[in-house]
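Case study 2.
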Amino acid sequence: MGKGKSDDPKVGKRKENANMQLKRNIGYFDGVSFIIGSIVGAGIFVSPTGVLKHSLLNVGIALTIWTASGLVSLMGSLCYAELGTALPFSGGEYSHIKRGLGSLPAFVFIWTSTFTKPASNAARALLFAEYATQPFYGICPAPETLKKCLALAVLWSLGILNGRSVKMSAWVQTVFTLLKMVALSVIAVGGIVLLVGRRKESLARFEDAFSSEIPNASQVAEAFFQGLYAYGGWWSLNYMAEEMKNPSRNIPLTVMTAVPAVIVFYLLVNISYLTVLTPKEIVSSVAVAVTWADRVIPSVAWIVPLSVAVSIFGALNSSMFTLGRLSYAGSQSGHLPVLISMLNVHTCTPAPAMIFSTTIASIFIIPSDLITLTNYFGFSAWLMIGLTCASLIVLRYREPHLHRPYKVFLPVPFVMVAMSVFLVLAPIVWSPNLQYVYAFLFMLGSLIVYLPFIHFKLRFAFLDKITCHLQLLLEVCPADGSAEGKCE
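Prediction:
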């Protein structure tokens, strides 16, 4: 045996992990699961009523808006596919805005997201706890303390899972996405069977689909807003672009598979609801899928609340995964503490980023009233989508020679920017509220942090000592450069 060689497996593992970077463990099917899992939450099971209500119970217009909302989401996801293949690194919108529009808009994005996205995860965890505990209490409400404890347990279980293993997290996501798609398939297929079997009863509702009162422009816009909200999450894949296998091929392919699949399922499920229930029954129902199950499959109607819990769990796992990558990317760019961008030396996962985002979400659960404050930040999501699509346009002209394995038709991002401007301004104009002013002031408040700590690079020596101790405790070290740096 040669003198320079070692048979110690630990030495071999250290050499293998010497290149400290996120590993490309996410394949095509994992990506599809993450996108579908992010989009399909509890809404389609519980309250797909917003579109129908604002369409004035006009079935034809409601289904048209569901389709149009899906197509707009597909257009947005194709814009993101171009950015994800040209700049395949973690962070999603944050990384693209930083590259296209500069450091300050990117910091405003991560400042706002650090508040709103964990709050959204906290709300999902509490909703999961609601559905998971309710069967044990019947008609009585479950204790708030129990729901909060279960929500915290779920958050930290998923936080630890995502911080320990990307492969295991992707496996969990795939399983729960399949389960929720099975539940949606039961509703969709059940509706088709009933539609064929009850020709006279059900077909009349669709034959005269546009015969009801026609909504005005503002009502159509509100219904459209509700439809787009139901498709929220189509942007999630770009947060994990740095971990995608063969991103040049898999990102566009994944998007073109997942988003159209959700559009088809949403349409079939809504048609199924309308086959069994009248528009008035749907709008007045507290949980539409439960009412549907009581009519169609009463003996196993309990499966619907279980399906809702499963769907929420899958959406929460996907959201926590992407939020950890956002924190990781922000830290790599110097917009968050350096510890957050470090990787575990054993698993090459962003464990500190997961701990950071999970801790903030936990804070929102304890006094859950804080979550209601984030309702007024809904416009910020479309503001950031508009800025991301604007970044695509800027990069097309500023960096024409940037390698783009996939290019979207250029008018598409212009349409998305216009749509974003409308969706940002519409709720503020239609229902002005002082809370929107507070939300804008909070976003502008990022300047108070940005100027001293980012622009002028103010540092405190004691923080370096704390970082060093936490680095040893968590067994993490800095990543070997950033994927973003390699793309510049």
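Strands lie at 342-344, 476-478.
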